[in-house]
Write a structure and sequence with these properties.
- The structure is a single chain.
- The chain is of the alpha/beta class.
- It folds into two domains: about 60-230 and about 330-465, 3-Layer(aba) Sandwich (Rossmann fold), CATH 3.40.50; about 240-330, no CATH class.
- About 40% of the residues lie in helices and about 10% in strands.
- The protein contains 14 helices and twelve strands.
- The protein has helices spanning about 50-60, 120-130, 160-180, 200-210, 240-260, 260-275, 275-280, 285-295, 310-330, 330-355, 370-380, 430, 440-450, 460-465; strands at about 20, 35-40, 75-85, 190-195, 225, 300, 305, 365-370, 395-400, 405-415, 415-420, 440.
- Strands 3, 4, 5, 8, 9, 10, 11 and 12 form an eight-stranded mixed sheet that branches.
- A hairpin with a 2-residue loop joins strand 10 (about 405-415) and strand 11.
- Helix 3 runs parallel beside helix 4, helix 5 packs across helix 10 and helix 10 (about 330-355) crosses helix 13.
- It starts with 19 loop residues before the first strand and ends with a helix.
Length: about 475
């Protein structure tokens, strides 16, 4: 069982929280009921929102191999290309609780220490020899794997490396061994790799690739650098998107002001660490508390007392309430549509080239952050999807119908769950069609035009929506 909590990695807000649950699958795989649904599970989910349960989901502590629905399709469908968006794995906090000792987490990689992965030792050996490859600047100045006895701020941990070695192994078994997505003599131009300029995203991408590729050849690995966490490349200027974000942050602030229990909790914690409440809140204590929680390290104590699980639960519960209100107010949706459009537009461009028989960029990997995946989930209409846990993966699969070679379809999967028919562009399609996928043209039409409908106004393209005056 996997688990959730909102990271405070960036100031941008996440989407929402309801567990993704598989239901039984008939043998032909064609019934609409065979698809996994986004619903609470009455058997395993607590009857009311449990902040500790959600926190464990978010930590995503590696355990037994998980079941996944990637690569599932009727036999007459051929896999054409795969586009993978990941959040980096478990990391050390970006903030510290003022006047407390930093949590002691070891960021060296030790093969015989938990969490373990069979490829961990070989991964360290491979990375320690140096790449011999040139990445796009400034990535070539980043370390290839975590290696500090006391983690540095924001550094990937051994847990984070293992999470992505597992992701890579899982995707290799499905896409390479089963579907032969890449030929045995694959070349560098068949991969498209992009990451932000943080060591944790580069290292997460390398760990996934090391688990995924049958032959990790440095000469074939080239990561492009993406300066924006939204992966908007040359289309980042969007004034209306920023206005949505400002309004969303204002909504978030007002909700916090109304929560007297939250304010009382911050006050108690501030007394314990002997700083003004305002300073404690600004230090994002939840980020450090999550690290203590995920790594089973006691919360900090001072001579005035201890930060404890009750404090943690109050802050976490407020985050869940914040997510609920965010869905209702729709300001984050406006931000998400404009934030996610450039990367979605890039993705459908790659898919369309693949339908023409082009053999480049068959496997695309974007190694990113919670604030990359969360807007994409929201923009796609997946409002029920949990906020991206550590090492979350969102995958777009492109398929060709061998019986009708001109027809191409897509599947969308989030952490191994098929959520295609929960997207706003395909939620009605399976009522009219027995096919277990969504026509590619539905996604193309959505990205090129329909997604802007959620914003109101008359804009039907990205530029107009970003610059409309009436907002």
């Amino acid at each position: 069982m996997r688990y959730f909590i909102k990271s405070m990695e960036h100031s941008v807000c996440p989407s929402s929280a309801v567990h993704l649950i598989p239901v039984s699958t008939p043998k032909n795989g064609m019934s609409s009921k065979s698809r996994k649904r986004i619903m609470p599970d009455p058997v395993t989910e607590p009857p009311v929102t449990d902040p500790v349960y959600e926190a464990l989901l978010y930590c995503n502590i590696p355990s037994v191999a998980e079941r996944s629905m990637e690569g599932h399709a009727p036999h007459h469908f051929k896999l054409v290309s795969v586009h993978v968006f990941i959040r980096h794995g478990d990391r050390y906090p970006l903030y510290v609780i003022p006047k407390t000792k930093r949590p002691e987490i070891d960021c060296t990689l030790v093969a015989n220490r938990k969490p373990y992965h069979p490829k961990l030792e070989a991964f360290v050996s491979h990375m320690s020899k140096g790449s011999g490859a040139s990445f796009e600047s400034p990535l070539n100045s980043l370390p290839l794997y975590p290696n500090h006895p006391l983690c540095e701020m924001g550094e990937l941990t051994q847990t984070g490396v293992v999470q992505h070695l597992q992701n890579g192994q899982l995707l290799r078994d499905i896409y390479l061994k089963k579907h032969k997505l890449l030929p045995n003599d694959w070349s560098a131009d068949q991969l498209y790799l992009e990451t932000t300029g943080k060591s944790r995203t580069l290292q997460s991408g390398l760990a996934l690739l090391y688990g995924f590729l049958p032959d990790f050849d440095w000469k074939k690995i080239y990561f492009r650098h993406q300066p924006s966490a939204l992966f908007c490349s040359g289309s980042c200027y969007c004034p209306v998107r920023n206005q949505y974000l400002e309004k969303e942050q204002r909504r978030q602030y007002l909700l916090r002001l109304k929560n007297s229990q939250l304010e009382k909790t911050y006050g108690e914690m501030a007394k314990i660490v002997d700083v003004p409440t305002k300073q404690l809140r600004a230090a994002n204590p939840i980020d450090s508390m999550l690290c203590h929680f995920c790594h089973n390290v006691s919360f900090p104590c001072t001579r005035n007392g201890c930060v404890d699980m009750e404090h943690f639960k109050v802050i976490k519960t407020h985050q869940i309430e914040d997510e609920r209100e965010r869905r209702e107010k729709k300001l984050y949706l406006g931000y998400s549509v404009l934030g996610a459009h450039p990367i979605l537009n890039q993705t459908i461009g790659r898919m369309q080239r693949a339908t023409e028989g082009r053999k480049e960029e068959l496997f695309a990997l974007y190694s990113a952050h919670d604030v990359t995946l969360s807007p994409v989930l929201s923009a796609l209409g997946l409002s029920e999807a949990r906020f991206p846990r550590f090492a979350a993966r969102l995958i777009f699969e492109l398929w060709q119908d061998r019986e009708k070679p001109s027809e191409h379809s897509v599947r969308i999967l989030y952490n191994g769950v098929d959520v295609t028919f929960h997207t706003s562009f395909c939620q009605d399609h399976h009522k009219r069609s027995p096919k277990p996928m969504c026509p590619l043209e539905n996604l193309v039409r959505f990205v090129k035009r329909d997604m802007f409908v959620a914003l109101g106004g008359s804009g039907t393209n990205y530029y107009d929506a970003c610059h409309r005056e009436e907002f």
